[in-house]
Write a structure and sequence with these properties.
The chain is mainly alpha-helical and 118 residues long. Helices cover 81% and strands 0% of the residues.
């Protein structure tokens, strides 16, 4: 059952990522914490490891095929993401599971509010 659940979580995360251009982690991390009962730190690390290649490569290829990728911006963003992911992972090591879960929930609420209210 766990394998099926993991595949479904990955599928939904991939669809959301490809559809909205957001990291699948917005779906994957809460699903791993709530459904699979992984600690938030493990859910974040697992999500990063899973998203590393498939989402970025295949999703970007499809958008590129349609002429919807700004390559110079993508390169600059990738450099920031490369450094930022390291800094974020390092910082997360000093934060409790509860604080990490609350911070992620707060981020989701802020993003949702901004998108819904314009």
């Amino acid at each position: 059952m766990t394998w099926v659940l993991m595949a479904l979580i990955g599928l939904v995360g991939g669809v959301v990522s490809g559809l909205f251009g957001v990291g699948g982690a917005i779906v994957i991390v809460p699903a791993l914490v709530l459904l699979v009962k992984l600690p938030p730190h493990t859910a974040s690390g697992t999500s990063l490891a899973a998203l590393l290649l498939p989402v970025g490569l295949l999703g970007a290829m499809e958008y590129y095929r349609r002429g919807q990728v700004n390559i110079p911006y993508a390169i600059i963003l990738a450099a920031g993401l490369f450094l930022g992911a390291f800094i974020g992972a390092h910082f997360a090591g000093g934060v409790s599971d509860v604080a990490l879960k609350r911070a992620f929930g707060g981020l989701l609420l802020l993003v949702a509010g901004k998108l819904l209210l314009g």
